[in-house]
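Structure in, sequence out. Go:
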């Protein structure tokens, strides 16, 4: 046993990774200068240490632009380690796609090392974070991971970016698309123009079903339509494998199938628990998606509430 402990300590020292750090996940090249680190499927847990989103980074002539560095200081450090395997350039910008902490609490790792990096997000995201959502997400991530994210500080973006905002860095252009009332009401999608890559945030999931608690079905469907209309070459979802426009169309079909079916059943006077089997029957292609069984009942209930509200608008 003593020799095993010494071996583990030696490995930690030799790799420069502490026991609390997240193991390396490979950065996959998806365009000439753009990489994505695909997080594991599922909700934040002690096993994944809170890492389950898809951080993206693009290398420009001036440095590195990072999008959604993950859920904790330790996820952010892991992302930085993958960047360092590709380039030694400084990180110049860090963008957060929305308020959900699994995407942006990794900001701390970059502000610690690159204090001049510009941290950017939708104005509503910044407002909510400063109003207390930062503390709520720190607590939630700690609870879900049983303390694996403890030690993380919420570094809130200061630069506000909204619809049609565009900035350039090192010869690369980054255009912001900000669909209203989509996944969280604080959402941006980032078009890396020269690479023709669209980073979707949680407006699109692929092979995974996520929360819709802060979302609207109609707004999220419109966000999918915006992404489809753009006609990008590569689409990066907030969770799940990267792909072509087909992944956006598939998630749109999931959302529209639920909402349109529920709308009809509301008119028939059904309750949400009566609707659920009818909706589930229409979603066979999604039954094996991670989280389907956990979320579908809640999605039906949320769609019903939205459909009922829409009837009075």
């Amino acid at each position: 046993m003593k020799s095993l402990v010494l071996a583990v300590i030696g490995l930690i020292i030799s790799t420069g990774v502490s026991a609390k750090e997240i193991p390396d996940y490979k950065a996959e090249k998806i365009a000439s200068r753009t990489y994505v680190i695909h997080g594991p499927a599922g909700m934040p847990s002690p096993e994944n240490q809170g890492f389950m989103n898809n951080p993206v980074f693009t290398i420009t002539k001036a440095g590195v632009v990072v999008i959604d560095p993950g859920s904790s200081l330790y996820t952010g450090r892991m992302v930085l380690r993958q960047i360092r395997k590709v380039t030694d350039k400084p990180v110049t910008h860090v963008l957060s796609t929305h308020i959900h902490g699994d995407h942006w609490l990794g900001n701390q790792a970059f502000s610690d090392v690159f204090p001049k990096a510009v941290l950017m997000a939708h104005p509503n995201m910044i407002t909510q974070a400063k109003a207390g959502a930062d503390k709520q997400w720190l607590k939630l991530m700690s609870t879900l991971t049983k303390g694996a994210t403890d030690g993380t500080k919420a570094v809130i973006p200061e630069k506000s970016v909204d619809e049609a905002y565009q900035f350039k860095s090192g010869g690369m252009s980054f255009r912001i698309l900000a669909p209203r009332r989509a996944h969280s009401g604080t959402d941006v999608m980032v078009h890396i123009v020269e690479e023709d890559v669209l980073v979707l945030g949680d407006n699109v999931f692929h092979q995974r079903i996520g929360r819709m608690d802060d979302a609207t079905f109609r707004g999220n469907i419109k966000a999918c339509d915006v992404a489809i209309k753009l006609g990008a070459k590569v689409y990066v979802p907030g969770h799940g494998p990267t792909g072509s426009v087909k992944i956006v169309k598939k998630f749109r079909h999931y959302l529209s199938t639920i909402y349109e079916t529920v709308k009809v059943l509301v008119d028939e006077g059904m309750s949400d628990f009566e609707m659920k089997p009818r909706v589930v029957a229409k979603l066979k292609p999604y039954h094996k998606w991670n989280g389907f069984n956990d979320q579908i009942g809640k999605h039906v209930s949320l769609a019903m509430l939205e459909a009922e509200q829409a009837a009075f608008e």
